[in-house]
Structure to design on (411 residues):
């Protein structure tokens, strides 16, 4: 269209920008006040980027006479950035509902894992599933996430544990990236568990010698786009040495380090991640004080997963200590066959109730900081001119109250 504008959201009671000055993340005192506009409107161009945000009367004058493909009257409503889910395992076959009864009877995560359940159960079914079957279920899961307000999702492989199936999962993620109306960050997680018949060292050798070179080749050919490399650094899975080898090699090939650490046992994974320049470390239920300090100093984000601690009856991650020490705290749903949560609003609720995060902290953790954990906060996670126009409209007059937020008269 000649005007070049796709969408006008007008007359909102409140627009929660989250950031207004190009911040890539919020930490420490900056989390006490989120950027908020009262009585505002927002314009998205045909390229999908935000063109203007400001008081409704200012936007009306600036765009008077313009034609929009769509106009939405947001009177009495609140506009937020699309939510960002910084940790999911959404591509798999093999339901594990039966394991819930085992957990209720007292079985631990590792008890089930060692009995052939858990990841191993899902691996068997995922290997047998066709690419089309995996895509069909994956699409349905993403659609449910979108209905709950998520517009950027980190998606891991990791239920193949061999090159053929890992590539099958990554192709499914790539297809969704190209066909579905939301943004994805793809993570190679071939070191999610040690395959049957191999030691952790043998599995690491295979990943380094075969998996990673193939991923690099497919990336250079434009067939697959993989953003992150992940390892399950855990006692009885990949120890600190094998984790280091895989992550270092992945980093050399251009992948961001974004891995599971210090979940069930203290592994000094946080210290390792800070040393290697990791973009993010997930879980951290058993992180050490030294690990927290190292992450804060290195600008390494902590992706906290309150659903996991809830489902597995683990102690909660020490969100308050991390926040107080200046760690960049993000949130993820950890959606997987073991923790079936599509909803980032529910994750934020659990973060506030169980991890003692404030509401502004939880919102920042599910928007700008989650985007930062994925290396995408330059385009996602806040409502600012030039960023992706991913917005959600909620049927509430206020989301952030003035005493908890910073009000801007213009932007």
């Amino acid at each position: 269209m000649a005007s070049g504008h796709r969408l006008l959201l007008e007359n909102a009671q409140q627009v929660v920008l989250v950031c207004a000055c190009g911040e890539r993340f919020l930490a420490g005192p900056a989390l006490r006040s989120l950027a908020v506009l009262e009585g505002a409107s927002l314009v998205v161009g045909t390229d999908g980027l935000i063109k203007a945000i400001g008081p409704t009367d200012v936007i009306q004058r600036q765009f008077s006479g313009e034609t929009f493909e769509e106009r939405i009257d947001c009177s009495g409503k609140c506009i937020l950035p699309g939510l960002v889910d910084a940790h999911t395992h959404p591509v798999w076959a093999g339901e594990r509902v039966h394991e819930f009864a085992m957990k209720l009877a007292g079985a631990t995560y590792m008890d089930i894992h060692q009995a052939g359940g858990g990841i191993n159960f899902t691996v068997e079914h995922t290997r047998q599933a066709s690419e089309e079957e995996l895509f069909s279920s994956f699409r349905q899961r993403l659609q449910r996430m979108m209905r709950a307000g998520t517009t950027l999702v980190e998606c891991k492989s990791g239920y193949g544990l061999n090159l053929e199936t890992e590539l099958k999962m990554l192709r499914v993620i790539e297809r969704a990236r190209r066909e579905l109306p939301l943004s994805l960050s793809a993570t190679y997680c071939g070191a999610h568990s040690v395959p049957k018949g191999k030691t952790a060292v043998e599995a690491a050798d295979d990943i380094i010698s075969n998996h990673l070179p193939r991923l690099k080749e497919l990336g250079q050919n434009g067939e697959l786009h993989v953003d992150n490399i992940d390892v399950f650094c855990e006692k009885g899975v990949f120890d600190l040495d094998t984790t280091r080898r895989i992550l270092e090699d992945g980093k050399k090939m251009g992948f961001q380090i974004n891995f599971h650490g210090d979940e069930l046992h203290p592994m000094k994974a946080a210290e390792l991640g800070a040393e290697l320049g990791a973009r993010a470390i997930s879980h951290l239920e058993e992180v050490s004080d030294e690990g927290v300090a190292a992450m804060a100093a290195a600008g390494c984000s902590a992706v906290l997963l309150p659903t996991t601690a809830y489902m597995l009856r683990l102690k909660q991650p020490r969100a308050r200590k991390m926040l107080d020490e200046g760690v960049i705290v993000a949130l993820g749903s950890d959606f997987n066959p073991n923790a079936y949560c599509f909803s980032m609003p529910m994750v934020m609720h659990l973060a506030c109730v169980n991890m003692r995060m404030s509401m502004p902290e939880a919102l920042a953790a599910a928007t700008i900081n989650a985007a930062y954990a994925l290396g995408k906060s330059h385009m996602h996670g806040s409502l600012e001119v030039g960023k992706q126009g991913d917005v959600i409209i909620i049927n509430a007059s206020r989301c952030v109250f003035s005493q908890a937020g910073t009000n801007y008269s213009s932007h």
Q: What stands out?
A: The CA atoms of residues 90 and 323 lie 28 Å apart.
